[in-house]
Specification:
With 242 residues, the chain is mainly α. The protein has one domain. The chain is 79% helix and 0% strand. The chain has 10 helices and no strands. It starts with a helix and ends with a helix.
């Protein structure tokens, strides 16, 4: 049997599960990043905070705090990029030797599934991880650009270009954060794609759960409530008696 014949072993339910996974990824990304939404996501709400950060940086002296925050952000992108590289290497290693997976699958399902089917499923996971890696690397690069633009902001707050440069730094910072978030979503869906190894039903369930988790954290989480309404203040002694 050639590759095309082997792939015909995938059922219409497999195709439906993969379509749901990819469609959910695109739809939730659009939903999160859409501007001027009636119910903005955490990603959108953070935009103004990032702009305010750069405006406050103009009058902060010294600006060591701002440099430290940016360094932490770059460290996060480096960590996830390295993690993706390791994960991609692991998945490719398994793709090259699927014998162990076949043995386990035979014990569980008594089905003799060709190696190319397992490789195709693992390749889907690797593609998500690769996309995430590319986004983390670009995010790291953008945070580096942001650091350079921040360093070019004049110390003289009366300089004509001071707030223009700060706004440029904020725009680059925002783009870096968006790419970082896209990389994180790719990791979420790569983990969801692993469920395909257990069959199309497991992938359908996994895609639904992953999408719900991302939606909840962007639109129904406590951090989002804090960003909109402010922190919940502790009750006074009189209030606790009521």
């Amino acid at each position: 049997m050639n590759v095309q014949d082997h792939l015909t072993l995938l059922t219409p339910l497999d195709a439906l599960a993969v379509a749901l996974l990819v469609a959910s990824w695109f739809i939730i990304s659009w939903w999160i990043e859409r501007p001027n939404a009636a119910k903005p996501s955490v990603t959108i709400l953070m935009i103004e905070y990032r702009r305010e950060w750069m405006r406050q940086m103009v009058t902060r002296d010294p600006r060591i705090f701002d440099a430290a925050v940016l360094a932490d952000l770059r460290q996060g992108t480096s960590f996830f990029a390295s993690g993706c590289m390791i994960a991609i290497g692991g998945v490719l290693a398994v793709i090259g030797n699927t014998d162990q997976i076949q043995h386990v699958a035979s014990d569980l399902t008594l089905d003799n599934i060709p190696s190319i089917i397992w490789q195709f499923k693992l390749l889907t996971v690797a593609l998500f991880l690769t996309y995430g890696f590319l986004k983390f690397v670009w995010s790291n690069r953008l945070f580096g650009y942001c650091a350079v633009v921040m360093a070019s902001v004049p110390n003289d707050t009366t300089a004509p270009t001071v707030y223009e440069r700060a706004e440029q730094a904020a725009d680059i910072n925002i783009r870096a954060a968006w790419n970082f978030n896209r990389g994180l979503r790719a990791i979420y869906y790569s983990l969801g794609a692993l469920a395909w190894l257990m069959g199309p039903i497991a992938l359908l369930i996994s895609a639904t759960i992953v999408t719900y988790i991302i939606w909840q954290r962007e639109f129904a989480s406590i951090p989002r409530s804090i960003l909109i309404d402010g922190p919940a203040l502790p009750k006074t002694t009189e209030e606790t008696k009521v």
